[in-house]
Every structure is written in structure tokens, then in C-alpha cells.
Specification:
- By secondary structure, this protein is of the alpha+beta class.
- The chain is built from 5 helices and 10 strands.
- Strands 1-2-3-9-4-7 form a 6-stranded antiparallel β-sheet, with no helix packed on it. The protein has a 4-stranded antiparallel β-sheet with strand order 8-5-6-10, with no helix packed on it.
- A hairpin with an 8-residue loop joins β2 and β3.
Length: 191
Amino acid sequence: MSTEDVLAEVGPRLRRIRKEREVTLAALSQATGISASTLSRLESGLRRASLELLLPIAQAHQVPLDELVGAPPVGDPRVRAEPVRRHGRTFWPLTRQPGGLQAYKVLEPRRTEEPEPRSHEGYEWLYVLSGRLRLVLGEHDVVLAAGEAAEFDTRVPHWFGSAGEGPVEFLSLFGPQGERMHVRARPAARA
């Protein structure tokens, strides 16, 4: 719908809302400080709606501004992504928009493979939901338990996977930018 179409519907909507509330033009004029003739021209489409005029009308009717201009309803915010299996891991995408910050829920099965740290552009945040996650980051080798988080620049060679006792479930946020979370990781116990 074009801007012109949206604006053309404002007048009839203003009239309908006012009549539903059984308010006269004179009473609305008194409540808003807008002249009755201006209100009449708005309702008939002879005067273009502006924010300066719509805000006091919305306040007088105690309705959100969106209701006066007929803003489209917000779509269903739920992300209904199908799980993807890659390299033995199961990923559930938690974001829909390509590019920028990407979020995933990850299930990593129990494995005993040797870490092969890699690096690439970006920044990553990890939050462990259940199990234990081993993170090898540069010279650090740490194990994160449920409720712990880590953040790191992915240009530093890194690897993460199950700590070996069983599967680990965690959230991964990956992106080139963003707010940093606090690192709350304990070093892995040395044998």
C-alpha cells in the first residue's frame, strides 16, 4: 500500500473512531486544541494528516497512533526454522534475516576428536544451556558448564565441542558487531 493510499484512509478512520466514541467535533476540538473546521477537513480528506494533528487526537481518544493511521499489524515474530545437521552437529537457526548478527541453538553430540582450531572474520558469543562445552581459544583450553558464557574474536584460532562426558546444548551468536557478554568460564581441570 502506497503512502498516498494510507493517507487517504486516515480521514474516514478519524471520523469512524470519533463517531464510535459519540464525540462531537466541538468536543474533540476543545480536547485537542485543534479547530473544529480543521478536524472536519481532516475527516473529509480536504486537509492532509500530520503528526502535529494526529498526536493530540490519539491522546484525546486514548488510542495508539497506529490505530489512527492504520499501520499494518506486526507479523508473527516466531522463527520457525527447521534444524540443519552439519559435521555431526544439529543447528536450529534462531534468526531470519540474512547478514548481521546470526543466532543458533546447537546440539553437539558426545565426541572424542582432537581439536582443530580455525580462524575467520567475525565475533562469537556462546551460552551453555546443558552439558559441558570445551572451548579451545588461542592458548586457552576451558570447559564451560550450563549457565556459563564466553565471547571471542573469531580471528583468534578456536575450536569448540562437547567436553566428552555427553552431548552439550548451547546458544551461539555470531556476527561482525554487537554488545559483548561477560566471560564466565572456568579453566578445564588438568589431568
